[in-house]
Structure formats: structure tokens, C-alpha cells
Amino acid sequence: MSKLSSKPLPKPLAYLGQAVVYGAVAVLLGYFSTSPAYERFPADKAQLVLSFTHIGERTTPCRKLTREEIAELAANMRRSEVCERERVPLYVELSLDGEDLYSASLAPTGLSRDGAAQVHERFTLAPGQHHLRLAMRDSARETGFDYESELAIELRPGQNFVVDFRPEFGGFRFGRQEGS
Q1: Which end of the chain is more exposed for a tag (fewer CB within 10 A), N or C?
Q2: Which CATH number fits domain 46-59+88-178: 2.60.40, 3.10.450, 2.40.160, 3.40.1000?
Q3: pTM of the model
């Protein structure tokens, strides 16, 4: 058997090796910090963003308690009605120029399915005139919608067009943001 002897490199060679390795890492970091170029969406396109959080109706309506039922409850637990926690899923449809762009049933969040449903979708579109239609059902009804909006929009290149939902303002809200 042969013994391998390991002699340490002379200090100037060790420093030179470290400098080469550090230099190579710095060059790679510099290159990948600027290349390949990243663009959120093409500059000659527009973007439609559908983003909101909303809580649907309860799956079963609240029930009023009788005086006897209230009396049976502990003093710190007394209330006039009892409500189930679970909420209905939201059903959302979005169409652009008569074509369905998005439709989904959004489940409520939470372990007890009692939280808000959320949507955040982005669509890259050609600039120009478009007809936008939005509809949402947040109740237990089987057909039809609780909220509907139609809007003619003009999209410019590089524009973000944001769609939000606020029931306190009557439903869908539309905003325009330039660039990104």
C-alpha cells in the first residue's frame, strides 16, 4: 500500500485559487442578476386582474332560540339565535367579448368551511376595445346570479385593469393602473 502525503499548498497559490473561485462566482452572480431579462407581461399587451376575497351566505339560515332554550344555556353562553358556521361556495364567471374567460366555484376557507373564498387570476389580453361581463353567486340559489356587471373597456399596451368586489359598494369595482 502506498501512503498519500498531503502537503499544504503554499499560501500565495491558495490565495490565488480563492480569488479565481470568488471571481467566477461574482461573474455568474452578475450575469444572472440581469440576464435573462424578466418581464411581468409583454409590453405590447394589457393585463386583466381579477382579485378579491368575499364570504358567501351561510348554508342554513340562523334559527331563533325559544325562551326555554335560552334559559337552558349557561349564563355566559346565552344568545337569541344559533347559526351554523359553514358557508356556501362562490360561483364566479368572467367573459370577455362574449367568450368565457374564467368560471369557477370557489370553496370557503377554514376548517369549518366558514371563511372567505378567494380568487386572484391574471389574464394577458390584446389592447383595444373589449366588452367585459362579470357575474357572481354567493347564495344557496341553484341558478342565476346575485351580482352582475357589464362594462365596455379600452385597454392600452402595458395597462393593468383590476376587477375587485365590494358588496358595500354594490358589487364589482373596476380600476385602472398604468404599467406594472
Answers
A1: N
A2: 2.60.40
A3: 0.71
